[in-house]
Amino acid sequence: MSQQLTNLREGFETAFIDSTYASNLTYRPQFISNNYREGKKVLPTIENELLSCNEFKISVAFITQSGIMPFLQTLKELESRNIKGQILTTNYLNFSEPKALEQLQKLKNITLKMYDVEAAGEGFHTKGYIFKKEEVYNIIIGSSNMTAAALTSNREWNTRIVSTNQGEMAKSIVDEFEQLWNLHILLTIVTLLRSIKHAMR
Predict the structure, then answer these.
(1) Are the CB atoms for 96 and 67 separated by under 8 Å?
(2) Any residues with CB less than 8 A from the CB of 80 and at least 6 apart, and which?
(3) Sign for the pseudo-dihedral over CA of 97, 100, 104, 105
(4) Each residue of 37-93: pLDDT tens digit?
(5) What is the pLDDT of residue 12?
(6) pLDDT of residue 144 exceeding 70
(7) Whose CA, among 21, 37, 40, 175, lies 20 to 30 Å from 192?
(8) How distant is the alpha carbon of residue 4 from its chain centre?
(9) Is the pLDDT of residue 199 over 50?
(10) 80 C-beta neighbours (distance < 10 Å), count
(11) How confident is the model at residue 158, as a pLDDT?
(12) What is the C-alpha separation between 132 and 148, in angstroms, rounded?
């Protein structure tokens, strides 16, 4: 762990104090955005984090078919490796697509829940991707939902945070996720899809 702490401190030096300071990119906080002129996309960063993590948690307001399609092969690989994931989304504006949720639900390594804004009496607009590898968290917080436009072409601003599991920032974010995840107002996706199909009859 001592080498990891050294790498983290050097990464903070580059990110927040002196941009010319040499450090390991893996441990460096970063600004992540889409910019087609420069060939930048949010998507590959999230995909790389998925492939290197031991577990992951995702909280986004919107999930669409186009948003999960680029990740399906990666998620299936994680399923074969038994890398567990929790995904929290919402029925806010009824924007998330049932077909996308059904595909995620089929993956045995993923638990999927939906925040019920009507029961909560408030909106839900989080966009966070939490990846844990051993004692280090890589967390992407910003504006990108799990939609194709948000991950590849829209103007989106995201920050990648790197922290040990004892760091204040990581603990605050993970605690907030767990608090939301354990709320009694959450719907299972099976319940949600059943209600949607019933409403469409």
Answers:
(1) no
(2) none
(3) positive
(4) 899 999 999 999 999 999 999 999 999 999 999 999 999 999 999 999 999 999 877
(5) 94
(6) yes
(7) 175
(8) 23
(9) no
(10) 9
(11) 97
(12) 24
- Nearby residues of 58 by Cβ (< 8 Å), 6 or more positions away: 85, 86, 87, 88, 128, 129, 130, 146
Q: How many Cα atoms sit within 13 Å of 166 on the Cβ side?
A: 4
pLDDT band at 24 (very low <50, low <70, confident <90, very high): very high
Residue position matching structure tokens 């990108």: 144
Distance CA 159, CA 27 (A): 13
Among residues 71, 21, 12, which one has the least CA distance to residue 41? 71
Is 38 in a helix, a strand, or coil?
A: coil
Residue with tokens 């989106």: 156
How far apart CA 137 and CA 131 sit, in angstroms, is 6
Those residues whose C-beta lies under 8 Å from the C-beta of residue 138, and which sit 6 or more positions away, are 49, 53, 131, 132, 160, 161, 162
CB-CB contact of 27 with 10 (8 Å): yes
Neighbours of 37 (CB within 10 A): 5
CA distances (Å), 174 to each of 38, 43, 58, 155, 158, in order?
A: 32, 22, 10, 26, 17
Alpha carbon distance 99, 96 (integer Å): 9
